[in-house]
Specification:
By secondary structure, this protein is mainly alpha-helical. The chain is built from 16 helices and no strands.
C-alpha cells in the first residue's frame, strides 16, 4: 500500500521526483559550507583573543578527536548512511530503524572508549587540562556522532536544505554557548569545553529534529541484522578512506601537539583553516555528487565523472593564487601579530590544494559506484606521505614542515584517486561497447 505523505517526507521512501544534486544544490551547499567555515574562523579568533595560542590549540584538538572517536568506532556509519539511503535500499522500511540502532550502538561504544582513553589523552595531548575536563568531553563524542549521522541521512535522502541547516548549526551554536559560559564566570579551556558540550547538544537536537519533521522516524519496520552488517561493511571501507583523508588533513595537528606544543598547533590551525577556503567548492561538489552517483545508472555516472573532472580542476587551480595573496594581508589583521608566522604555511597548503577539485569528483564517484575501498587506496597513499614527511619535517621546521608534508600528500592523493576513477569509468565504457551497446 502506498503511503501518502507531503513534501520532503516523501524522500524517505523514494517518491520525490525532483533532484537537488545539480549546480543549484552545489551552490547552496557551498554557501552553507562557507558560512560554517566563517563561523569557525570567528570562533577561532574569539578563542585566540580571549584564551591565547595554547587554549586555541587545545580547542582545535578537541574539535577533532571526539569526532574521530565517533566516526571510527561507529564503523563509518555516517558515510554508509548516505550511500544506503540514496541507493537501492532507500525504499526498504527496515533501513531507517537499522541505521538508528547502529547509531545508538556506535555512540555508546565510542563514548566508553573515550573514557578509557582519557588518561592517555590527558598525559600526551592535554597536559594543561584537568583529567576530569578531558573525560567530560566524552559527551561531545555522542553529540558529534548524532550530528554527522543526521546530516548524512539528510544528504542521502536529497534533503539538502536539512543537511545545510545542520552544517551551519553544528558550528554556529558553539558561539552563544561559549558566550554564556564566559558570562557564567568560566575562563580558558573550561569555557571552551562548556561551549562545545552545550553547542554540540543543540546541534545534535537540530539534526534529530530535522529527521523527525521530514518523516525519518515514521512507518518503520523491524531492524534487519544482515542489512546492518552490510551497512557496517560498506561503512568500514568508506570510513577507512575518510580516516586516511583525516590523517592527511589533521594528523599533523596531533604530531605538532606532541612535538612542538599547543602554541605551534594554534599557529598552524590558523594557516590550515585559511587554506581550507580552497576546499570549500571541492567539498560542496563532493557533497552533492556522492548521492548523485549513488542514484545514477553506472553508464550515466561514468559519463558524468569524465565530464566533471577537468572543470573541477580548473576551478580550484584558479583560486590558489588569489587566496595566497589574500593570506598575506588577512591573517595578521584578523589574528594579530602573534600569528604572522601562519602566512607561509597557508601558502604552502594552498599549493597542494590547487588540484583538490579532481580529488573531490573522483572520491564521490568511487564511493557512489560502491567502491569505497578503491577510494581508500588513494587516501592511504596520501596518508603514508603525510606520516613519513611529518616525522621528518616537523621536528626541523615546525608548522612549515607540517604544511610541506600535507601539501605533498594532497598532490599524491589527488593523482592516485583521479587515475583510479578514470580507469574504472573507461573500463565500464569498454565493457558496454564489447557487449554491443553504445558508450555513454
Amino acid at each position: 500500500m502506498r503511503i501518502d505523505v507531503p513534501g520532503v517526507a516523501r524522500r524517505w521512501w523514494g517518491t520525490s521526483a525532483g533532484s537537488p544534486f545539480g549546480r543549484r544544490g552545489a551552490l547552496l551547499n557551498l554557501t552553507a559550507q562557507g558560512t560554517a567555515l566563517l563561523i569557525v574562523a570567528v570562533a577561532s579568533v574569539l578563542v585566540a583573543r580571549i584564551g591565547g595560542p595554547t587554549v586555541l590549540g587545545e580547542y582545535t584538538l578537541l574539535r577533532v578527536l571526539p569526532w574521530l572517536f565517533a566516526v571510527v568506532f561507529s564503523c563509518g556509519l555516517p558515510v554508509a548512511s548516505t550511500f544506503f539511503i540514496a541507493g537501492g535500499y532507500r525504499d526498504d522500511p527496515r533501513l531507517r530503524p537499522t541505521l538508528t540502532v547502529l547509531a545508538v550502538l556506535g555512540a555508546g561504544i565510542a563514548t566508553v572508549l573515550w573514557l578509557v582513553a582519557a588518561p592517555l589523552l590527558h598525559r600526551e595531548l592535554f597536559t594543561a587540562t584537568p583529567l576530569r575536563v578531558v573525560a567530560l568531553m566524552a559527551a561531545t563524542v555522542v553529540t558529534q556522532l548524532i550530528t554527522v549521522w543526521g546530516k548524512a541521512c539528510c544528504q542521502g535522502a536529497a534533503d539538502m536544505r536539512g543537511a545545510n541547516l545542520v552544517i551551519v548549526c553544528e558550528e554556529l551554536l558553539f558561539l552563544p554557548a561559549y558566550g554564556i559560559a564566559g558570562l557564567a564566570g568560566l575562563r580558558g579551556i573550561d569555557a571552551v569545553v562548556a561551549g562545545m558540550i552545550a553547542g554540540g547538544a543543540a546541534a545534535a537536537g537540530t539534526a534529530l529534529g530535522r529527521l523527525a519533521v521530514t518523516g525519518f522516524f515514521r512507518h518503520w519496520s523491524r531492524p534487519r541484522l544482515p542489512l546492518g552488517f552490510a551497512i557496517l561493511r560498506y561503512g568500514a571501507r568508506g570510513q577507512l578512506g575518510n580516516l586516511l583523508m583525516l590523517v592527511n588533513l589533521r594528523l599533523d595537528f596531533v604530531i605538532l601537539g606532541v612535538l612542538a606544543g599547543p602554541a605551534v598547533v594554534g599557529v598552524y590551525a590558523v594557516a590550515s583553516k585559511f587554506a581550507e577556503l580552497m576546499r570549500l567548492p571541492a567539498t560542496a561538489l563532493n557533497y552533492v555528487l556522492y548521492p548523485r552517483f549513488a542514484r545514477q545508472e553506472p553508464a550515466a555516472a561514468d559519463a558524468d565523472v569524465q565530464r566533471l573532472l577537468p572543470r573541477a580542476v580548473a576551478g580550484t587551480a584558479a583560486m590558489a593564487p588569489l587566496l595566497a595573496g589574500a593570506s598575506v594581508i588577512t591573517l595578521p589583521v584578523l589574528y594579530g601579530p602573534a600569528f604572522h608566522s601562519a602566512v607561509l604555511p597557508a601558502c604552502i597548503l594552498l599549493a597542494g590544494l590547487a588540484v583538490e577539485g579532481a580529488a573531490a569528483v573522483s572520491s564521490a564517484y568511487l564511493c557512489g559506484r560502491g567502491r569505497p575501498g578503491a577510494n581508500s587506496w588513494g587516501m592511504g597513499a596520501g596518508a603514508l606521505v603525510t606520516v613519513a614527511l611529518d616525522l621528518v619535517l616537523i621536528p626541523r621546521a615546525g608548522a612549515v614542515g607540517a604544511a610541506i608534508a600535507s601539501s605533498a600528500a594532497y598532490l599524491v592523493t589527488t593523482g592516485l584517486l583521479t587515475t583510479i576513477a578514470q580507469g574504472l569509468a573507461r573500463r565500464s565504457v569498454a565493457v558496454v561497447v564489447a557487449d554491443g551497446g553504445e558508450p555513454a
